[in-house]
């Protein structure tokens, strides 16, 4: 149980360092990179580097310079930063460790009403969640 608390504390410290203390650094970096984008030689160099990286990570997804330019603006936008913070907070709250308690996530039923995950749990009976598609 102590290791569960230690892992959660480690995740919170990582979040604090990366997103709270590191925010000014990232905003300055994003501003400098966007300013460098205004100079054609630097812009071309950045596009070539992005192309090299993303051909390994996501082959065939980005095909033209316009695709990379769109990706560049998405990666260096405030909305992107806010989305990363939101996702990180959700991941911290939803993190489950062996032997730890399951999170009581909110669910939406097919009729639109809401319920909680642990409402389906019963004593002495495991709750199995299967993710898949019925299509």
Automatic annotation (TrEMBL):
Q: Which residues cross the membrane?
A: 16-39
For this protein, the record's InterPro entries field holds:
Iodothyronine_deiodinase
Q: Would I find Lipid biosynthesis among this entry's keywords?
A: no
What processes in GO biological process is this protein linked to?
Answer: hormone biosynthetic process; thyroid hormone metabolic process
One molecular function GO term is: thyroxine 5'-deiodinase activity
- State one Pfam family annotation: T4_deiodinase
Q: Which residue positions does the secretion signal occupy? A: none
Q: What domain of life does the UniProt record list for this protein's source?
A: Eukaryota
The answer to whether keyword rRNA-binding applies is no
Per UniProt, the keywords (alphabetical) are: Membrane, Oxidoreductase, Selenocysteine, Thyroid hormones biosynthesis, Transmembrane, Transmembrane helix
Q: Which family does it belong to?
A: Belongs to the iodothyronine deiodinase family.
Q: What does this protein do, in the record's words?
A: Responsible for the deiodination of T4 (3,5,3',5'-tetraiodothyronine).
Protein name, as recorded: Iodothyronine deiodinase
């Amino acid at each position: 149980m102590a290791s569960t608390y230690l892992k959660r504390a480690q995740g919170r410290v990582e979040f604090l360092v990366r997103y709270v203390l590191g925010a000014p650094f990232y905003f300055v970096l994003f501003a400098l990179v966007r300013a460098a984008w205004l100079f054609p030689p630097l812009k071309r160099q950045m596009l070539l580097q992005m192309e090299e990286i993303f051909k390994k990570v996501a082959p065939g997804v980005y095909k033209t310079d316009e695709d990379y330019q769109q990706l560049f603006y998405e990666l260096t936008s405030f909305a992107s930063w806010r989305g990363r913070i939101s996702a990180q907070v959700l991941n911290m709250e939803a993190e489950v460790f062996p032997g730890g308690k399951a999170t009581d996530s909110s669910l939406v039923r097919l009729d639109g009403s809401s319920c909680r995950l642990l409402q389906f749990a019963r004593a002495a009976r495991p709750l199995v969640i299967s993710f898949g598609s019925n299509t």
